[in-house]
Amino acid sequence: MRWLVLVSILPVLSGCGCAGQKLKEVEEIPPLPDSGANCTPRAESCNGEDDNCNGLIDDELPANSCGVGACANTGPSCVNGALTTCTPLAANPEVCDGKDNDCDGTTDEDLLPATCGLGECMAVSATCAGGAPVVCVPLQPSTERCDGKDNDCNGTVDEGLLQNRSNDRRVTNNSSSSDFVYAGWSGTQFGLVWQDKRDNANGEIYFAALNKDGVRLSAQDVRVTTTTGVDAHPALAWNGTRYGLVYADNTAGNYELYFRLLEANGTPVGNPIRITNAANASDWPDLVWTGTFFGLAWEDERSGAGKEDVYFQKLDASGNKFGPELQITTDGARQMAPILKWTGSGFGVVWTDTRFTQREIYFRRLDGNGQLVGSETRISNDGADSAWPDLSWNGTDWATVWHDTRDGNAEVYLARLSAAGQKLGGDLRLTNATGFSGYPSIDWNGFQYGLSWQDDRAGSTSIYFAQVNASGAKNGADLKVSSGTSTSSFTTALWNGSTYAFAWRDDRDGPAGNTELYFAYVGCP
């Protein structure tokens, strides 16, 4: 609005006779915010005006609040006449401090409980109380009892208390040699395969099914092979419905590997499938099932006689090859008798190696597709003879055992390897007896290792057993398993879901030169 104002112009200059009134247009002066009758109060809103006529603009508006816990934030809801948005502070992982770090409205939640102690001393406790960390305290140990529990909390169960519960059970019974026994576990029964010379001097592959206690499921052994050559060194793995069998056969003039499917009772399915076809010998196979295919490792002389290398091949559930053969070792010396294991996502293979003057133990990893990962790991390095390893995976790391002459006589040693194949600590001596202790076999049962080996400390060679915890420490005394007074040798140890069981060759029954197969398992008296 504009107003007309009368302005008197006074004569200010000498000699000027100006007189009269003139009109001048001026701007309206706005009223003060609290200029009484000119302001009508109303609720204040965010519009850049003094709605409530108190002389302040956009005042008395509530602050903006957002977020919970450590994310809580506040600020003005109106700036320069415009509404604002509240942004919560950033959330963080929950920690034990009495605060809602992850801003979900709860304090010190979702913090995993702590576990501590071994065996019966294992305790579970909260890790946080009243905003302060809590230390887990193990339960107290007690005297070890033979009850399937780790009462003294040292990482092994019933150590020093187990006995041969089954007594020695004779599996084979004929006047010719039964040898090179290999045991496989289906989840409900054992399958045993071996070389048997009852039919001819060359030897054929036979099968027997045993229940978990070593009782035969059929009175008759099943003859698997019928060839004119030598069949030897079988390996067996269960694929969920049938056994897969691999063995060496020299009918073609040199040892080659063959595959055969077997029913649970040992009945052969289909015809043998030839796996290898190369110059010189392919021998000493080992076989594992991954859940979708078989993995096969063996020693191969195709580079020249006496220059064995370790090879790997994938086989489908029926034993058909797929993918190329993989040469694991390339050194010009001998790499022999590989042992292959499956972790659930990859393979580990261990073997005896002669690239030095003495034999040594080596390890290599393969991924889930059977491709090499990383480099070789030399396990033994003591200047003595180290040979005939076995391998086990415990879900976190590897354990390998072998016999070693660094102490003057052969003793059993263990080394632990990380999942990546790196040695964890030094070599651990597991036996300490006069004479020969060797050809060890090891298996993991979910909380400890079971170890078996042949040992002649008592004069004749016998089968012994010991329990070893996850750190590689042996607990309890060595247990003599076999009861014969002749030679019991070349044992294999397997967990049957409730205890450890063993198969071995034994010459107690004669005649001279004849060996038969025996079985036993250990348990509480």
What does this structure look like?
The chain is mainly beta. It has a domain at 169-274. Helix content is 0%, strand content 44%. The protein has no helices and 39 strands. It has strands spanning 2-8, 21-27, 64-66, 73-75, 78-79, 82-83, 114-116, 123-125, 128-129, 132-133, 163-164, 169-170, 178-185, 190-196, 204-210, 222-223, 231-238, 243-249, 256-262, 268-274, 282-289, 294-300, 309-315, 321-327, 335-342, 346-353, 360-367, 372-378, 386-393, 398-404, 411-417, 423-429, 437-444, 449-455, 462-468, 474-480, 488-495, 500-506, 516-523. The strands form twelve sheets. Strands 11, 12, 37, 38 and 39 form a five-stranded antiparallel β-sheet that branches. A four-stranded antiparallel β-sheet has the order 13-14-15-16, with no helix packed on it. The protein has a four-stranded antiparallel β-sheet with strand order 17-18-19-20, with no helix packed on it. The protein starts with a strand and ends with a strand.
